[in-house]
Design goal:
Distance between the termini: 88 Å
Oligomer: single chain
Radius of gyration: 34 Å
Number of domains: 2
Strand content: under 5%
Shape: rod-shaped
Order of helices and strands: HHHHHHHHH
CATH topology of the largest domain: Rna Polymerase Sigma Factor, Chain: A
């Protein structure tokens, strides 16, 4: 009984190869037109042939059926690729928004810009450390945290005029530090 099963399986395989082999190049060309990739096109052809093998019987002219299977395999590959890239993008966006809360949208779009922004923040913090304590306090509240003069005055328990004048002097001092620190010929 085993011998009969093996012989019918062998006969089926030979018949399948004879029926399909002449269409392999056409199937690959069709898949490559959809996927724009030689390797992915071969994957789609292989997947299609496996599906065709599972059919109990193929028609005498199998090309239309095989092309339909290739098209379905190509669409499956494209959907999987799109889902994977969407998942990878959302994972990268989530990761960058956790590590770069200053600008999560920009960080997800350009990790190099996010790294440059972090370096610039460190650099500005180092330069701001040269300011007096009073100037650092008002700059932190007004310029970096975005508080209004009224809110900063309340928090520092100072008159609003004092906060405004300290902010102006702190900005001027920081500008002087930046000008002294910038390399010669730098347009900034």
């Amino acid at each position: 009984m085993k011998k009969t099963h093996k012989s019918t399986l062998h006969a089926r395989r030979v018949a399948f190869e004879e029926l399909v082999s002449e269409h392999i190049a056409d199937l690959h060309r069709a898949a490559k037109r959809i996927l724009y990739s030689d390797d992915l096109a071969w994957d789609a052809v292989q997947e299609s042939l496996v599906r065709a093998w599972s059919y109990p019987e193929l028609p005498d002219q199998p090309l239309p059926l095989l092309l339909s299977l290739v098209r379905k395999s190509c669409l499956h590959i494209l959907r999987c690729s799109r889902r994977r890239s969407d998942h990878e993008f959302s994972a990268a966006h989530e990761h960058t928004s956790r590590c770069c809360p200053m600008d999560p949208e920009g960080a997800a779009a350009d990790p190099a810009a996010s790294a440059a922004e972090r370096d610039e923040i460190r650099h500005m913090s180092a330069l701001a450390s040269r300011l007096t304590q009073e100037h650092r306090e008002v700059l932190e509240l007004v310029a970096w945290r975005g508080l209004s003069y009224d809110e900063a005055a309340d928090r520092l328990r100072l008159p609003i005029g004092t906060v405004r004048s300290r902010t102006s002097r702190a900005r001027a001092a920081l500008t002087r530090i930046l000008n002294d620190h910038s390399p010669e010929g730098d347009p900034c």
